[in-house]
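Hi V.,

Quick status before I head out on leave. The structure for the redesign project is tokenized and pasted below; the design run finished overnight.
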């Protein structure tokens, strides 16, 4: 074989070797890119799942375990303002849901001391949910209720209430608007035997922010 032919073959082999090396390098880069993309996608999926799990982790027992009785409805009473300590006709539900109330509502939040019914009825008129809990409720269950209230603090008041039925841990209340200006609406009450954020959230979804003076946003949790 001539020297010229040998040189030509050598150049061809060298070129093929370079092409093979480039192909191998390209495959390696593509593989790295795919691995990185898979890892990133997996991380995103895990983060979303973790966030979803955190949101779905509710305080207390399930709705089925809460032992809630059906919601009771009461004919609404006119919500006139009264001075603090002023006598008025008795409320037609226990706990109170509609009717006369003080001019200033309670600040939202959890209370360890009883708030006057006349004050929190004003909160109900604004579309908030009032949780009347049994005064003998354990400290652990009170902590759970406080945590639930803090989860939607802008729209919830919790207060001990001596007249909560002994079979309940708490009773939830709301005031629903009527069909016209002269219709005082409807009061609703639901009692539950065990603390359950799931049960409270269901009540919130159904009744929060639907009052005669709906200053509170609807629940969308």
């Amino acid at each position: 074989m001539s020297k010229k032919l040998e040189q030509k073959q050598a150049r061809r082999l060298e070129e093929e070797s370079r092409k093979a090396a480039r192909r191998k390098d390209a495959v390696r880069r593509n593989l790295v890119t795919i691995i990185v993309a898979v890892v990133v996608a997996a991380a995103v999926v895990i983060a979303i799942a973790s966030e979803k799990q955190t949101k779905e982790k509710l305080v207390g027992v399930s709705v089925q375990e809460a032992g809630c009785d059906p919601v009771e409805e009461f004919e609404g009473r006119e919500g006139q303002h009264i001075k603090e300590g002023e006598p008025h006709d008795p409320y037609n539900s226990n706990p109170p849901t509609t009717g006369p109330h003080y001019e200033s509502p309670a600040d939202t939040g959890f209370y360890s001391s009883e708030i006057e019914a006349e004050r929190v009825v004003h909160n109900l008129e604004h579309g908030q949910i009032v949780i009347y809990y049994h005064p003998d409720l354990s400290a652990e269950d009170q902590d759970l209720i406080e945590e639930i209230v803090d989860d939607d603090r802008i729209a919830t008041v919790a207060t001990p209430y001596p007249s909560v039925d002994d079979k309940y841990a708490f009773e939830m209340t709301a005031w629903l608007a009527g069909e016209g200006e002269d219709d005082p609406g409807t009061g609703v009450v639901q009692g539950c035997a065990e603390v359950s954020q799931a049960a409270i959230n269901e009540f919130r979804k159904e009744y929060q922010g639907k009052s005669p003076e709906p200053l509170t946003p609807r629940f969308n949790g």
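Above is the designed sequence. The two ends are 84 Å apart (CA to CA).

G. will cover questions while I'm gone.

Best,
W.
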